Amino acid sequence: MDAVVILVLCLSYLFFISLWRQSSGRKKLPPGPTPLPIIGNVLQVDFKNISKSLTNLSKVYGPVFTLYLGGKPTVVLHGYEAVKEALVDLGEEFSGRGNLPIFEKVGETLGIIFSNGKLWKETRRFSLMTLRNFGLGKRSIEDRVQEEAHCLVEELRKTNGSPCDPTFILGCAPCNVICSIVFQNRYDYKDQKFLTLMKTVNENTKILSSKWMQVYNNFPKLIDYLPGSHNRFAKNFFYLRNYILDKVKEHQESLDISNPRDFIDCFLIKMNQEKHNQCLEFTFENLVSTVTNLFVAGTETTSTTLRYALLLLMKHPHVTDKVQKEIERVIGRNRTPCMQDRSRMPYTDAVIHEIQRYIDLVPNSLPHAVTRDIKFRNYLIPKGTTILTSLTSVLHDDKEFSNPETFDPNHFLDDSGKFKKSDYFMPFSTGKRICLGEGLARMELFIFLTSILQHFNLKSVVDLKYIDTTPTVNGFASLPPLYKLCFIPV
């Protein structure tokens, strides 16, 4: 009986402490729904479609509001004006990385994506410079993308027009590009180790986007002790990390300071240059994390976009036909597409932009955090507060895009058929935390898609009216349904 009384008292204490913290912390924060003790506002969020929940809440509380996801407040920015004001106009103050418990579970706090402060700034600056200057007089990144586009076309040709699931073929192409930049070598599309790596990255993206993972990230201390896909995520992550660790060790043993071969070599040389400066940014651990970030981000986002793109192009054959006619007119059948072609292909450029806008790949980006106490729209947001930016609200803004829920390349074309830029185009986010690989991703999407449509017609295995483009999950990423198609040589 005494134990029961003690338990009740402890729970009551936790309940009232949670209630007190929430009520005292809410006074100067933006408005929002009243949170329940301990669980906050989780009952008001549909984890199958967080974006829709945020849109509904913004109609009640405005473009800047507060949610308690678990016991801590998260300030949500909804709409172009709020997102731009925070991430661009106050870029430094909103440049922190918010907590993402699943990555804290696997110890991922270094690298480009999840680090903060000086470590993040130095790592990002070095990585950008190295990628931009990569090759040191050798092949450019565009050469690598073009070479991989040729390999991709040949691999698709081997399907002989039979129905196939393009998931892994489309994943291999961008993965090989990043491998050639980071590891110096590419892999054969049938290499089993390569396919295992691809399967690992693909599975973790699905897990990260699942409803279970959204719940985990709000109650990590509770769920850590339960069975579930968060444990599978960790196992996959460590498999990938150990693979990269072995690669880094191989590079250490064969490093020639006068002849760097790839990104890993450049980082090792920088480590050697900084070893007497007590520099904490260029360490072995940070190198492994940075390469892991580049490998995962450089593979899955582009491959998922490509997979979604082919589904949309099958669904809308009149769009595909216009793109192929533009390819025929500007590039022809025999020459490999290059980035210079894009300026003469406004319709193709508009289609690729519309694909990225429509699929809304990462609906709420990765969480940001404010780097100091900041007054924002007459609210006081304390240092360290998590910031959630709704990219969906920008990419699907009906004031900028006439039919935001409809796939329509005309969203990026003016009345004369020329390509029309839009400030609302933020699939890579914006501000200081904008995706480091944006330039590479844009290049890959253009060259890979034009290469595919230059050589193949896309044939659906089902009637067009049955092609469903609704994402299967809409958590961290919006993932397309599985499908098969036939690549028919032109």
Q: What share of the residues lie within helices?
A: 40-55%
* Overall pLDDT: 89
First CA to last CA: what distance?
Answer: 80 Å
Q: Examine the secondary-structure arrangement and name the CATH architecture.
A: Orthogonal Bundle
CATH topology: Cytochrome p450
| Neighbour order of strands in the largest sheet | 1-2-7-4-3
Q: Provide the CATH superfamily.
A: Cytochrome P450
**N-to-C series of helices and strands:** HHEEHEHHHHHHHHHHHHEEEEHHEEEE
Number of domains: 1
Give the strand content.
5-15%
Q: Describe the global form.
A: globular
Protein model, in words:
- The protein has 490 residues and is α+β, with helices and mostly antiparallel strands.
- It has one domain (79-489): Cytochrome P450 (Cytochrome p450), CATH 1.10.630.
- Helices cover 51% and strands 8% of the residues.
- The chain has helices at residues 2-25, 50-61, 80-89, 101-105, 117-132, 141-157, 167-182, 192-208, 211-216, 220-223, 229-254, 263-274, 284-315, 317-330, 346-359, 391-395, 438-455; strands at residues 64-68, 73-78, 96-97, 368-369, 374-376, 379-381, 386-390, 456-460, 473-474, 478-479, 485-489.
- The strands form four sheets. Strands 1-2-7-4-3 form a five-stranded mixed β-sheet. It has a two-stranded antiparallel sheet with strand order 5-6. A two-stranded antiparallel sheet has the order 8-11.
- Strand 1 and strand 2 form a beta hairpin.
- Helix 11 crosses helix 13 (284-315).
- The longest helix has 32 residues, at 284-315.
- It is globular and about 65 Å long.
- Residues 10-24 have low confidence and may be disordered.
- It comes from Cavia porcellus (Guinea pig).
- Keywords: Endoplasmic reticulum, Heme, Iron, Membrane, Metal-binding, Microsome, Monooxygenase, Oxidoreductase.
- Heme binds at residue 435.
- InterPro entries: Cyt_P450 (IPR001128), Cyt_P450_CS (IPR017972), Cyt_P450_E_grp-I (IPR002401), Cyt_P450_sf (IPR036396), Cytochrome_P450_fam2 (IPR050182).
- Its cofactor is heme.
